[in-house]
Amino acid sequence: MKRFYRPGPLDLSSPPVYPTSPWQAQRLPRTFQPWIHHDAQSWYLSDTPSVDKLHACLTRLGQTQAWFWPEKPILFLTDLHADAQAFLASLEACAWIQRFGPGPEEFHLAQPRDAARLILGGDCLDKGPDNLALLRVIRRLRDLGTDLTLLAGNHDLRLLLAMRSIGATDCPRNGHFFVRLGSKAIPFFRQLLDTYPELRPTHLPSADLCRAALLPAPDWPERFAEAAAGRLTPEQIKRELQRLAKRVNAFSQRCQVEGLNWQDIYAATRIWQQLFLQAEGEFAWFYPSLQLLEPSASLLFIHAGCDDSSALELAERGAEVLNQRFRAALLEEPFQLYFSSLGNMVRTKYRPQDGHLSQIGRDALERAGILALVHGHRNLHLGQRITLRAGVLNVECDASLNLATRSQEGLEGEGCAVTIIHPEGCILGLSNDYPSIRVFRPEQMAALIQRLNL
Question: Which residues form the Calcineurin-like phosphoesterase domain (predicted)?
């Protein structure tokens, strides 16, 4: 795939050539295919506007002169969820790294470090199999001088907010953020205990006090409903309480399966705080590096999506103001951030309880120069997908890389996927779960108009 970094025209006429190594996944696509193709698994219309509106939207998106493209290739990977091997396989497939051993840090750059940009779309943490290995791979890429941007995902954000709420379980608005993590975080806690025994506190509170520092009190649901009134709708409050009850039970059961008691979990949180929140911690660089969003030419890179409020602020004040507000909000009250428009951008799935994206938001995005959102968060089984939502093109890139997700959802083998934005004016979706590399160009909108008989 080295041709993606060569100057001059992009050659898609011959089969892709992949680097080979003993550690590279072998099931990689061997052909190229237009993204807006007869295969409905590649693209999707999320809403059904009138024929006239849909025709106008597709016509607008098909005007190649309206699109601007980055000056150098962008490699977008997202929702890695602590799977360092899938990350390395994806970087190797697009010839960004060359591995010289099986270890997660045994690689060097295969291209000049300024040949492309690398954007990670959030959800680096949680689930497994190895949070620490993935973080060390990211740090090595930084040390090697890669032009690297880290976006915040909902799992990354929830973990930070949970750790900041420990000991504040009597707070009616924030007392549930730790248990809101759910049982998926427990393998990470087990890994911290096993890897850093020297950081385990020598003196711990009793099991009952540890539990009280992590879980909200029995009367917390009533106090939360009262405190959240006016900020959340009654339906949102009901959902939050239902989610909490399920996660308390699942968390306790998973702890028993893993052989962990409440003192163990509390000790793991203290280790996490030392590693991530203290200035000398091994991963103290991670959270200060996170951004909310990253615009580039006509594209906006983000973890989950956008709503009208954020789109209007982006158009009026710019991306850096949003990023500054997000970084400041990380230090403020968890509830206020997570349920704000900023929080919506890392967790929305455009459900009724999420922030709304309408033509108002679409028009604001266009005023900001944005024609497409490139994001993850909504995991897919057949590689990347393009969705038209509220007149905004969405390139959905969560290709279920993580091994835990793949095992749970019946996907074979390790994941391998990368979305490449090329300066020549196209987007390529590579995934080992789909037989071809999808290629999007704006002029494909004309073919879609014909196919839909508009």
Answer: 73-166
**pLDDT for 80-121, tens place per residue?**
999 999 999 999 999 999 999 989 999 999 999 999 999 999
Output the CA torsion sign for 252, 257, 261, 267. Answer: negative
Where exactly are the structural domains of the chain?
Answer: 29-152+292-451, 161-277
How, if at all, do strands 392-396 and 372-375 pair?
Answer: parallel
pLDDT confidence tier of residue 26, bands split at 50, 70 and 90: low
Architecture in CATH for domain 29-152+292-451:
4-Layer Sandwich (3.60)
Angle between helices 262-277 and 186-195 (to 10 degrees): 80
pLDDT band at 1 (very low <50, low <70, confident <90, very high): low
Residue-wise pLDDT tens digits, 370-381: 999 999 999 999
Contact 95, 5 (CB under 8 A): yes
